């Protein structure tokens, strides 16, 4: 019984390439012959040629998920190896789904937005950035200066109820 492969291949959606080309992200130790053999034995896909290249990642400061922050330590993430396969028969991608209810996309988007908001609040310069209320006040001021809105102080004036004639309250007070 043949054993299953112990590596992962990722097929990339590349709309600008011709349909008889497919691009994969592969492990760094996989070679062209391995990929050609895998596609033939697993899927029965005849391969004309394979092109491979290694894409280096940008330098970054501090390793991600480090226990202690080290801001001046430079780190280069692991390189990505891509292989482009030329096939005899064209491969046509299926249409992208439009209805994501089966994957609960709305819930995931709300979770991502909430996590981003919490990350922004944890940032060291959070208090220096203008708040949402301050932005709305600035927009109101622009509207007043542009003449779109009128300044009114009616909301700040105290409103008194008129009960009729005036009555002396403290006429029997002895000092």
From TrEMBL:
GO biological process: mitochondrial translation
SUPFAM superfamilies registered for this protein in UniProt: Ribosomal proteins S24e, L23 and L15e
TM segment ranges: none
GO terms for cellular component: mitochondrial large ribosomal subunit
Tree of life domain: Eukaryota
Basic and acidic residues biased stretches: 102-146
Molecular function via GO: structural constituent of ribosome
InterPro entries referenced in this protein's UniProt entry, alphabetically: Nucleotide-bd_a/b_plait_sf (IPR012677), Ribosomal_uL23-like (IPR013025), Ribosomal_uL23/eL15/eS24_sf (IPR012678)
Sequence segments annotated as region (Disordered): 96-175
Keyword vocabulary terms for this entry: Ribonucleoprotein, Ribosomal protein
Matching Pfam families: Ribosomal_L23
Assigned protein family: Belongs to the universal ribosomal protein uL23 family.
Name of the protein in question: Large ribosomal subunit protein uL23m
Annotated source species: Amylocarpus encephaloides
């Amino acid at each position: 019984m043949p054993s299953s492969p112990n590596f992962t291949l990722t097929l990339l959606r590349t709309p600008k390439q011709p349909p008889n080309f497919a691009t994969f992200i592969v492990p760094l130790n996989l070679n062209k012959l391995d990929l050609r053999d895998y596609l033939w034995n697993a899927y029965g896909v005849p391969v004309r040629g394979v092109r491979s290249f290694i894409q280096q990642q940008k330098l970054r400061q501090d390793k991600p998920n480090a226990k202690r922050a080290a801001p001046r330590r430079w780190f280069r993430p692991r390189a990505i190896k891509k292989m482009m396969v030329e096939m005899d028969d064209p491969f046509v991608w299926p249409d992208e789904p439009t209805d994501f209810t089966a994957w609960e996309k709305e819930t995931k988007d709300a979770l991502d937005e909430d996590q981003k908001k919490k990350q922004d609040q944890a940032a060291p310069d959070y208090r220096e950035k203008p708040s949402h209320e301050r932005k709305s006040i600035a927009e109101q001021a622009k509207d007043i200066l542009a003449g779109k809105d009128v300044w009114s102080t009616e909301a700040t004036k105290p409103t008194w109820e008129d009960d009729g004639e005036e009555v002396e309250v403290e006429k029997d007070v002895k000092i």
